[in-house]
Inverse folding.
């Protein structure tokens, strides 16, 4: 193995280990590790294609990079939504299914949706469980 391929493979394994290590911590750390995995796959596939002179698949790394950019945009949008609703990016607080209909308290980013779809909630703004009226 050439030293460049070995370094890229180690970067891939380090990013993959980071995903499993930081999965119960901050969301931004998990997103950064996912981007590291995708970037190392991009560089490794580009090096393999250039070394083998397989000209038919020159477009594959570009497609992979475009998909990685789309995934980064979606991850950043989710991070912004979560930090705007809760004020932090801890992964244990990402339970969006926690809705208390009896108390009319809604948590997470579902509060505007529940307010718009409920019959009884007209004129009533839902509150988050951690805030009191």
């Amino acid at each position: 193995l050439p030293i460049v391929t070995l370094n890229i493979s180690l970067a891939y394994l380090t990013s993959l280990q980071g995903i499993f290590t930081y999965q119960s911590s901050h969301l931004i750390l998990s997103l950064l590790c996912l981007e590291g995995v995708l970037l190392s796959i991009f560089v490794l596939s580009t090096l393999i294609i250039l070394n083998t002179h397989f000209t038919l698949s020159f477009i594959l790394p570009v497609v992979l990079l475009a998909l990685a950019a789309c995934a980064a945009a979606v991850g950043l949008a989710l991070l912004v939504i979560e930090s705007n609703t809760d004020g932090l990016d801890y992964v244990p607080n990402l339970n969006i299914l926690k809705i208390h209909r009896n108390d009319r308290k809604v948590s997470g980013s579902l509060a505007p949706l529940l307010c718009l779809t409920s019959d009884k909630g007209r004129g009533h703004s839902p509150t988050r469980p951690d805030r009191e009226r």
About this structure: Helices lie at 3-21, 27-52, 59-86, 111-117. Residues 3-93 form a domain with the Helix Hairpins fold (CATH 1.10.287.3510). Residues 98-104, 113-125 have pLDDT under 50 and may be disordered.
